[in-house]
Target: MBL fold metallo-hydrolase
Amino acid sequence: MKFLMLGSGTSTGVPRIDEDWGACDPAEPRNRRSRVSIVVENDAGQRVLVDTSPDLRNQLLANRIDRVDAVLWTHDHADHCHGIDDLRVMRYSRSNALPGLARAPVMANLKRRFDYIFEGQHGYPTLIDIKPVEDVRMVAGFGLAAVEMPHGPTTSTGYRFEADGASLVYATDYSEITDAMVACFDGADLIISDCLRRDPHPSHATIGMAIDLLKRCRARKLVLTHLDKSMDYKTLSKEVPKNVTVGFDGLEVKL
Model:
């Protein structure tokens, strides 16, 4: 099993559109961050896309991803779902809609915003057949577990993927570590974790919280994502333990 980090940045990306790089060195390519999304792939070549960021088209082109077997959403904030229309091309070669999963309230909001995606319109076919993730334990050849994580005043879904004797956790956009999260993620080979910045934030994890999640879950390795403009790649890489990797757009990790 492996994963590909399509995007590693916060909701505004790095740099921001006003060319604000913050503490990030513009000369370091790994500091240029698009909005977060990942692809998980098993040994059979089956792929699951997690979240459809607004930068999805460029991410898929850059990584030569022209097919996925299912799409999952962590939550319905714009930086995690507003690239959904870029999935249209993946429907062209299919005889049926692309399978999609999200928790029930997220499903309802996605259908309200993007009705044509899930219902078809004006002769165009339905693009995604979405179902509640609460009812699913397998997706596209992966064992799947899901847990709700506090995300400020709302929640985000954390996912655990099992395939080929390995386990991978994707936990982005959380502001508190709960017992349910620890139970779901326990013993994972790799955790990809939210890590917005060093200072506390009301709806996101800090570097200290991400490392605490690694320890509490007794996971082997940690990759940091959802990094803002204060998190310079080289500076942060010198601060973290050896089993922690600072994520960047295009990072691929094999388990």
Observations:
- The radius of gyration is 17 Å.
- The chain has one domain: 2-14+32-254.
